[in-house]
Amino acid sequence: MSDSRPVRVRFAPSPTGDLHIGGVRTAQFNWMFARRHGGKFILRIEDTDQKRTQEHSLSGIIDGLRWAGLHWDEGPDIGGPYGPYIQSERLAHYQYWANWLVEHGKAYRAYETPEELELISAARKANGLPPGYDRRARSLTPEDWARLDAQGKPYVIRLKVPLEEETVFEDMVRGIIRVRNETLQDAVLLKADGFPTYHLAHMVDDHLMEISHVIRAEEWIPSTPLHVILYQAFGWEMPKFCHVPVILHPSGGKISKRKHPEASISYFIKGGYLPEAVTNFLCNVGWNYGKTDEKGEEIQVFTKEEAAEVFDITRVTQTGTKFDVVKLKWLNGEWIRRLSDEDLARRLQPFFQAAGLNAPYEILLKVAPLLKERIKLLTEAVEMAGFLFRDDVPTPELSALIPKGLTAEQTRAALQLAHDALAALPDFECATQEAALRHGAEQLGIKTGQFFSPIRLAVTGQSVSPPLFEIMAIIGREKVLARLARAIAALQAAP
Ligand code: GLU
């Protein structure tokens, strides 16, 4: 960066619900930018809209960002030299600066009630004017204020937009953006209850926290001229702005928590995604890693740290990018394959726990290499290997147990042979089992598939599982024999 200001960026979510995947992407771009430029990444909670604030949302945001590995240098939980980092604890700042603006003629008091405002807006509309406030309280004098105050009328503080001017700012991605001030509202800065609005609070904080770059969602572009006017009114140095594009759902339109479960970070946390995969994927939503391998093919699997090394914010796209969960799922599988067995076992444990299964780490460690090639989501491990930790593996349906081409009696005889052969083995190693059972198939004169399929069903209760011999070695001979005996008994009882 050619700038002299130290890089300080922030993610400033409002705790109004689950952390949105778009929010994670914004946080991540800020995080990468800070890392790329040796700067600081700050988490600030913007809870000045008390009506929309939800109590559990703050911990959800913190947990979600932590899960994604987007660690901050300053924030509500860890403090820092510019704290507090929760806006509801900083009200005195906003009140002071709102009044400063009034004293310097840059803002004014307005006493209209919400009902009056609605009438004003409707009347404007009826006259073919843009809806909103008609700035009538600009003409009130301090004497009027004193009179209205004496009547106990509450007031808000509104920005006095310099109407005859034009406001221009430069977005790092979109270039120069210009608006005629007369098209802007005299936005409310401080509400009657003493709480600031977003417009005032965030920019006061960006100033006091010495934020150098504001990287945020594009929905804020229309409000940025108001913010620029505020910076000018205060005479404060402006941060650089970068607005990142919306995330689109593959079916079209903005991805939204209301319509799409995958718009919330919790969908990925609960759904068995790895944070490495999600952050890898988000790099390519509105930006692009763009590195190729020695064959000239685009590198798909990379870490957010690697991406941060080459993160160039001016390459953020101007148009929205689709969020393709199918591709993310593929990437997740790639990431799972890259984990060590120990790491995978550790990450799998909570998913088994959540399914009510007590899965000891040592057993997960044994099964991890078998699952690694076969799952795309951690949750799939529970479907595939949950039987390892269940005492009540169901006896399979006879119709499923009897393979194509065999009768019930032949199946029973085959399982009996398997049972006896496995019982007689000197050890229960995979290779020993395999040799014995392949030999068994030959003896029976049936295909190995026909032989192994009822064994698998009898032992695991399911038709798909990780490799049979490895699985039987993990389950242990005693249980394997008991499950085979159970299936044999079921077949004997068959009509
Ligand atoms: N609190 C705002 C939001 O949640 C922050 C916008 C900004 O980054 O300035 O969208």
From TrEMBL:
SUPFAM superfamilies in the cross-refs: An anticodon-binding domain of class I aminoacyl-tRNA synthetases, Nucleotidylyl transferase
Catalytic activity: tRNA(Glu) + L-glutamate + ATP = L-glutamyl-tRNA(Glu) + AMP + diphosphate
Glutamyl/glutaminyl-tRNA synthetase class Ib catalytic domain sequence ranges: 7-330
EC identifiers of the protein: 6.1.1.17
Subcellular location: Cytoplasm
Stored CDD domains: GluRS_core (cd00808)
A GO term, aspect molecular function: ATP binding
Motif 'HIGH' region in this chain: 13-23
GO biological process: glutamyl-tRNA aminoacylation
Protein's UniProt keywords contain Membrane: no
Record-annotated Aminoacyl-tRNA synthetase class I anticodon-binding domain positions: 344-488
Motif ('KMSKS' region): 254-258
Transmembrane segments: none
UniProt superkingdom: Bacteria
Amino-acid positions noted as binding ATP in the UniProt annotation, renumbered to this chain: K257
Keyword terms: Aminoacyl-tRNA synthetase, ATP-binding, Cytoplasm, Ligase, Metal-binding, Nucleotide-binding, Protein biosynthesis, Zinc
GO terms under cellular component: cytosol
NCBIfam families for this protein: gltX_bact
Assembly notes: Monomer.
Family listed: Belongs to the class-I aminoacyl-tRNA synthetase family. Glutamate--tRNA ligase type 1 subfamily.
Function, as annotated: Catalyzes the attachment of glutamate to tRNA(Glu) in a two-step reaction: glutamate is first activated by ATP to form Glu-AMP and then transferred to the acceptor end of tRNA(Glu).
Record's protein name: Glutamate--tRNA ligase
Source species taxonomy: Bacteria, Bacillati, Chloroflexota, Candidatus Thermofontia, Candidatus Thermofonsia Clade 1
